[in-house]
Amino acid sequence: MQSHEQKTEHKTFAEPNEVLEFPNGKAEILSVGGADVGRLIFRPGWRWSTDVQPLAQTASCEAPHFQYHVSGTLGIRMDDGTEFTAGPGDVTSLPKGHDAWVIGDEPVVVVDWFGASAYATKA
Questions:
Q1: What is the DSSP letter of 61?
Q2: CA–CA distance, 96 with 123 (Å, rounded to integer)
Q3: How confident is the model at residue 118 (pLDDT cuts 50, 70, 90)?
Q4: Whole-angstrom distance between the N-terminal and C-terminal Cα of the chain?
Q5: What mean pLDDT comes out for the span 67-87?
Q6: Nearest Cα to 73, choosing from 61, 57, 85?
Q7: pLDDT classification of 55: cutoffs 50, 70, 90
Q8: What whole-number distance in Å separates Cα of residue 121 and Cα of residue 19?
Q9: What is the DSSP code (8-state) at residue 90?
Q10: For FRET with 79, which of 3, 7, 14, 40 sits at 20 to 30 Å CA-CA?
């Protein structure tokens, strides 16, 4: 059995280790517990295929995500055609191969435990 030596840490998104900015949004990255955790903030009008695809240069988002949705409503379409919306209190697991967009006038905020540190970067 593999073990991981855990140590006490306290971090805040008010002082992220890294900020990745892209049109209509940003990813704030914390390095904590031997891993990266991201807070993704998408402003109204944000859509991955318009705002991030030119940076990533892939047909769809290739970053997998495991996210808790804090606020706002996010539309999500997987490459296989599956489509749904996620809102406050939802948890989503998104494998690579998807598009997403903000629905409505409220910013979307998600906490992402998987994939945020490679967000909005060239594949």
A1: B
A2: 12
A3: low
A4: 33
A5: 98
A6: 85
A7: confident
A8: 12
A9: -
A10: 40
